[in-house]
Design goal:
Length: 292
């Protein structure tokens, strides 16, 4: 009996969807397939490769060691597959995509991702809005955005595909930053106006730890907040990869600051996306999953 020498991209795409979505039913929603069809495709892929890719339990699906290796290769194969199709089929793709993202994430992680997309699809016009997450949610609910990246708590099970997760850190002008503005043990905070996910995370975490705090500086722009921290007006919180090199990531244990849970970014999409928006969605998911 001849062995299969080719792996169908649909099987690899199903594996990636199960991992990214966290389960078979969720993957089925993305792929517009039933849960049983998704399960059957995973079994076909495992049979063809001769290895077990996923450890399954009633409430959880995780990769085996072989699955982790194959997932990385699957993503590379699919990226090449999609790039080839885009060059052949989509040079004339056009339209307007209304996309929203938080300012801090948009300025640090998205420029390269969006530039790559516009080079591949020069006739697609992007309308990018940068605002606080809850303001983006209001725009999205009103039907004014096709796609939006929003901050959320890792335990939040609201609609949206998780595309990014990283630790939050306390930032100050130097290692002794919390005492810069006086006030003894009271922590001076540099924050965004309400509503803001990071502001709430700061105050809730300090309240839970029994640490007194006060708002010393409020600014709607990331640049303004960082300027205030540099001026020693207080401390703030940002994802670790967004921390400027001229500011100090504060040692929570030394300064008695409570540890912070990770931050998570989810991509939400409007129903009935136009083709250009679907292509941007897939591009963002692929690039952020690779750590772009």
């Amino acid at each position: 009996m001849a062995l299969d020498t080719n792996i169908h991209p649909d099987l690899l795409r199903t594996l990636v969807a199960v991992v990214e979505c966290g389960g078979f039913s969720q993957a089925g929603e993305r792929l517009m397939k039933g849960q049983s069809a998704v399960s059957l495709q995973i079994k076909r892929l495992e049979s063809q490769l001769g290895v077990t890719l996923l450890d399954r339990s009633p409430r959880h699906v995780s990769l085996t060691s072989e699955g982790e290796m194959i997932l990385d290769q699957a993503r590379r194969i699919l990226a090449l597959n999609d790039e080839l199709l885009a060059k052949v089929r989509e040079p004339e793709m056009s339209g307007i995509v209304r996309f929203g993202a938080p300012e801090d994430f948009a300025t640090s992680h998205l420029p390269g991702v969006l530039a790559q997309f516009t080079r591949a699809h020069p006739k697609v016009a992007l309308e990018v809005t940068c605002e606080l997450t809850l303001q983006l949610m209001d725009r999205f609910s009103a039907g004014n955005l096709d796609l939006a990246l929003v901050k959320r708590e890792p335990a939040d099970r609201s609609p949206g595909l998780r595309v990014w997760r990283e630790p939050l850190v306390w930032l100050g002008a130097d290692r002794d930053a919390p005492g810069d503005t006086g006030g003894g043990d009271t922590i001076p905070l540099v924050v965004s106006p309400r509503p803001c996910v990071y502001r709430k995370r700061m105050t809730d975490t300090l309240d839970a730890a029994g640490r007194p705090w006060r708002i010393t500086y409020t600014c709607g722009s990331l640049a303004g907040q960082l300027a205030a921290v540099r001026a020693r007006l207080g401390v703030t919180v940002l994802p670790k990869e967004m921390a400027p090199t001229d500011l100090t990531i504060l040692n929570s244990e030394t300064l008695g600051l409570p540890a912070l849970d990770d931050t998570e970014m989810a991509l939400i999409e409007a129903p009935h996306l136009p083709p250009a928006a679907e292509r941007l969605r897939d591009h963002i998911v692929r690039q952020l999953e690779h750590g772009a």
